[in-house]
Every structure is written in structure tokens, then in C-alpha cells.
């Protein structure tokens, strides 16, 4: 009897503990967060238990679909159609407000003053929202994009130097090599398919994604880049399978059994891991055979650097932990370095097709700085030449203002903290609306939704009233470590392509930017492509 009573007591205590934990997570903690913000005058849409504001968000999203004949709707203020709820609530509650998705509490931020306070924080107590971690784990693992705290700081210390200017200089040649392959492909298609008109109606974003993937693969894997390309094709499929709006805000999902999509994701994860691990172990064997100190630091690809640093961190032992570090960061770097750069190049060419006067200005500048196409490749080897591309830089900066691949940037407070006059409660997820910051008429002028590269004629600091609100590469201590790499790649890719081809908008282009982890053209970017000599 005593044993039974003891077991019953233990059972009841266990149940009570679980119930209290559930209540704390689902009720008390959300109420605490909202109370702290409410007392400071922050308002927002009223949530309903247990879904929060999800039903209202879904209703507005359904009503915000762009008509199928969207050619006539080609404009650059696409924010209301992608995030209608954020747009509507900002009008109602101001540039700082709170809302809920289930038990998760969010703070919307498009106020430059609060952004400045967030940017000044160097603490590790601000990081990526943890609730995004599990669904993104197959794609990013525990790499630098997804990790937080000291683990993130340690990874940044190893990876960031690989994208400093001195290393990027050594990657210019591989950027040119990959770009020339795409140029030859396009030139051949124009000559073969459109001999009469000299015009090819083609979708450019897919080829540019392949190009960007090839470049980051060469940078990561050096001579093994062809294997890297096969791996990255699988990663791209995984990204597509994960690209759902529910992922961004943590919409509730009551499925107890994995869906076919879930099974596909984990199957792709296993394939990617197996292929990466084979590549890693092959490179480990090569490193072991090297003599005389191995490869000079400035000639090492990213894979070798990751392997050597992870091995050093584990006292020279190639453990499962060090291999996992390499695998996770190879996936993270591909996602960050391939997808975002190819999208920026695609959106740039779309905008230039709408503004032929700027296309001609950029082409004239390339000719002035480097001469004709035959001299261009040699010219681009000199980083000083890239700095002289003022018109091209202005066009890229304006494209990143209107079509930055990252539409929203997030931060979670892991502790209670003070940001200016605001007391930020532990557990809040802050969402910085990049797209809204980049379109605020008070900061950018009444032409904020127009493509006007001339606003950047004197640099970012003079482009608007408050430059803190220009954040295409993020901000603060989590500023994109690949910014120099990305800008260099964009200048090389675009200068080579624009020196060879001219672009205009295809009548088959359907303008429909959508959020799929990053800002993508839902129906691709179709342009009319001509050889410059034939224009």
C-alpha cells in the first residue's frame, strides 16, 4: 500500500509539473511579455486563445492575392500583398506594436530609433528566434545562420575571415570563370534559336541561381566544386520544400504524423549529409598526404579552412562533432551565399530592363573604366577598377533597397534588457521590417517606391535622412559576413553580362514577388535578351 501511495504521489507530482510547464509556456509567460509591453504604451491587435492573431493574419493573406493579369500591376511597393497584416497593423498601431502567433509573442519594429538601439547591442543575449530552429535544422543544421550565443560567436570567428577583402580578391578569377560559362550559354542560345530577330525571350533567374551556386561551390570546395554543385542542387530542393509562410511566424501545426513533405525534407537531409561527408573525408585524406606545411593560407578554399579549424578546436581529432560543424556550415554558407546573391542579380536586371537609360549608363561606365569586352576580364582582376563602377554600385544599392532578398530580420531577447527607453521582456521575438524601412517616405522622400539610383550618388550616408534604416545585409553584430563577397560577385557578374547583352522586359513576365524564406519572383524573371552588337 505504501509503495502504491508513493508511486501515485510521484505520478501526480510529475503530471502537476508537466501541467505547470504547459501553463507557463502557453499562458503565464505570454501574458507576462504582453503586460511588460502594454505598460509601456505598446499596443497591437487583440489575440485570441489559443491561436493568437493567426486567424486574422490568414484571412488578410488570402484576400491579398495579386490578380493573375499582374503585368499591369508592376510596381515596387509589394509589401502590402506579401505581409498585408503587418502593413495594416502598422497603420493602426504605429511603427512599434505587438502581436501573437499561438503562444509566441512578437514585437514589430520599423522605427529607426529603436533599430539604432538594437544595432548598438553587442550582447549575445540577442539572437535568432529559437522557435525557428527545429524546422530549419535540416537545411541549416547548427551552422552560423541558425546558432546563438557563444556557439555562434565561435563559428563567426572561424568563418568571417574567409570573406574578408584579402580572401575575396583571390576569388575574383573563379567568379569570372563561372560567369563566362553562362555568357557562352546565352550567346549560343541567341545565335541558334533566334537567328532572324536576334532576340531571345528567356527566364534568367534560374541560370543566375546556377551561376551563383557554381561560384560559391568553387569558393567552398575548390577543385571539388563539381561534387559541390550536386550537393547544392539537393540543398536547393530542401529549401523549396521548407519555404512556407507558416515557418516564418510559427503558425500552429497540429499534425502528429509526418507529412510527405516532411519525409522528403529528411530524406534530402540524409542525402546531403552523406555526400558532404564523403567530400569531407576525401579532403581530410588529401590534407593528411600534404607535406611541407601544406597549402598557403591565401590559397586554401573554405572547406579546408573549416576542417583545419574544427580539428584544432578538437585537439587535432576529426571527431563527429568537428565533421558536423563542417557539414552544417557548408549548408549555411551555400544558402546565404548562393540564393541571396542570385536573387539580387536577377532583380537588378529586371529593374534595368524597365529603365534602359540606366542600363546604358552602366554599360558606358564599364566601357570607360575597362574598355571593350576583350579587356574586361583582365580589368576586373584589379579591385580598384571595381571601385570605379559608381553607376553600377548605385544601381545595386537601389535594387537592394527595393528588392532586398531578406524582407524581415529577426531577433529574440534571451534575457530582460533595456533598449533606449524600452524595457524588452525575455522571450519576445522582434521583427525588423526591412522592406518597410526601405520605403518610408519620411526617410527616403515621396519617391520612395520608385527606382532612382541617383539617390545613392553620394553614398549611403547621403541617400536618406537616416542611413540606419538601410539594412539590406542586416545590422549589428550579426551583419552579413559575406557582404564584401556578395558585392564583389554582383559587380563582376553584372559588368560581364551587361557588356555582352542588353535586356528589356518580356511580355510574358508576371511580376509577383513572394516570400519563400527570401524574396523570390514567384513566376520567374523573363526578359528579352539581345547581344549588345545586335541592339
From TrEMBL:
User: Per UniProt, what is the membrane topology?
Assistant: Single-pass membrane protein
Extract one GO cellular component term from the record: membrane
Q: Which UniProt keywords apply?
A: Heme, Iron, Membrane, Metal-binding, Monooxygenase, Oxidoreductase, Signal, Transmembrane, Transmembrane helix
User: Which residues belong to the signal peptide in this entry?
Assistant: 1-17
Q: Which PROSITE patterns match?
A: CYTOCHROME_P450 (PS00086)
Cofactor names from the entry are: heme
Q: What is this protein called?
A: Cytochrome P450 714A1
Query: What broad taxonomic lineage does this protein's source fall under?
Result: Eukaryota, Viridiplantae, Streptophyta, Embryophyta, Tracheophyta
Amino acid at each position: 500500500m505504501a509503495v502504491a501511495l508513493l508511486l501515485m504521489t510521484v505520478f501526480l507530482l510529475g503530471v502537476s509539473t508537466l501541467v505547470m510547464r504547459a501553463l507557463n509556456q502557453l499562458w503565464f509567460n505570454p501574458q507576462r511579455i504582453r503586460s511588460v509591453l502594454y505598460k509601456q504604451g505598446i499596443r497591437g491587435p487583440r489575440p485570441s486563445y489559443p491561436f493568437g492573431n493567426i486567424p486574422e493574419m490568414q484571412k488578410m493573406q488570402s484576400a491579398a492575392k495579386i490578380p493573375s493579369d499582374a503585368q499591369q500591376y508592376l510596381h515596387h511597393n509589394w509589401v502590402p500583398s506579401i505581409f498585408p497584416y503587418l502593413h495594416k497593423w502598422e497603420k493602426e498601431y504605429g511603427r512599434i506594436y505587438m502581436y501573437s502567433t499561438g503562444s509566441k509573442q512578437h514585437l514589430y519594429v520599423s522605427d529607426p530609433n529603436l533599430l539604432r538601439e538594437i544595432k548598438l547591442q553587442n550582447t549575445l543575449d540577442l539572437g535568432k528566434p529559437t522557435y525557428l530552429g527545429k524546422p530549419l535544422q535540416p537545411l541549416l543544421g547548427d551552422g552560423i545562420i541558425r546558432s546563438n550565443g557563444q556557439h555562434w560567436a565561435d563559428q563567426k570567428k572561424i568563418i568571417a575571415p574567409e570573406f574578408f577583402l584579402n580572401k575575396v580578391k583571390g576569388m575574383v578569377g573563379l567568379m569570372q570563370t563561372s560567369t563566362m560559362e553562362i555568357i557562352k550559354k546565352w550567346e549560343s542560345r541567341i545565335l541558334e534559336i533566334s537567328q532572324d530577330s536576334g532576340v531571345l525571350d528567356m527566364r534568367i533567374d534560374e541560370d543566375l541561381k546556377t551561376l551563383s551556386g557554381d561560384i560559391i561551390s568553387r569558393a567552398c570546395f575548390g577543385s571539388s566544386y563539381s561534387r559541390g554543385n550536386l550537393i547544392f542542387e539537393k540543398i536547393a530542393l530542401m529549401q523549396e520544400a521548407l519555404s512556407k509562410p507558416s515557418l516564418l511566424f510559427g503558425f500552429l501545426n497540429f499534425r502528429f504524423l509526418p507529412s510527405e513533405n516532411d519525409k522528403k525534407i529528411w530524406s534530402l537531409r540524409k542525402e546531403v549529409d552523406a555526400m558532404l561527408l564523403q567530400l569531407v573525408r576525401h579532403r581530410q585524406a588529401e590534407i593528411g598526404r600534404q607535406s611541407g606545411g601544406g597549402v598557403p593560407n591565401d590559397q586554401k578554399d573554405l572547406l579546408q579552412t573549416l576542417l583545419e579549424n574544427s580539428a584544432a578546436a578538437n585537439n587535432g581529432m576529426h571527431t563527429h562533432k568537428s565533421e558536423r560543424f563542417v557539414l552544417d556550415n557548408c549548408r549555411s554558407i551555400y544558402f546565404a551565399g548562393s540564393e541571396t546573391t542570385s536573387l539580387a542579380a536577377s532583380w537588378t536586371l529586371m529593374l534595368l530592363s524597365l529603365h534602359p537609360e540606366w542600363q546604358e549608363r552602366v554599360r558606358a561606365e564599364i566601357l570607360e573604366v575597362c574598355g571593350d569586352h576583350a579587356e574586361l576580364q583582365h580589368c576586373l582582376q584589379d579591385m580598384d577598377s571595381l571601385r570605379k563602377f559608381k553607376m553600377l554600385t548605385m544601381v545595386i544599392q537601389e535594387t537592394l533597397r527595393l528588392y532586398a532578398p531578406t524582407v524581415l530580420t529577426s531577433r529574440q531577447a534571451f534575457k530582460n534588457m533595456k533598449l533606449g527607453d524600452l524595457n524588452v521582456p525575455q522571450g519576445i521575438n522582434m521583427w525588423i521590417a526591412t522592406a518597410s524601412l526601405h520605403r518610408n517616405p519620411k526617410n527616403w522622400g515621396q519617391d520612395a517606391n520608385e527606382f532612382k539610383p541617383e539617390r545613392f550618388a553620394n553614398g549611403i550616408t547621403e541617400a536618406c535622412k537616416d542611413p540606419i534604416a538601410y539594412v539590406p545585409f542586416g545590422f549589428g553584430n550579426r551583419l552579413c559576413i559575406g557582404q564584401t563577397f556578395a558585392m564583389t560577385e554582383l559587380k563582376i557578374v553584372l559588368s560581364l553580362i551587361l557588356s555582352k547583352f542588353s535586356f528589356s522586359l518580356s511580355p510574358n513576365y508576371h511580376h509577383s514577388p513572394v516570400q519563400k524564406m527570401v524574396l523570390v519572383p514567384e513566376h520567374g524573371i523573363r526578359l528579352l535578351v539581345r547581344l549588345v552588337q545586335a541592339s
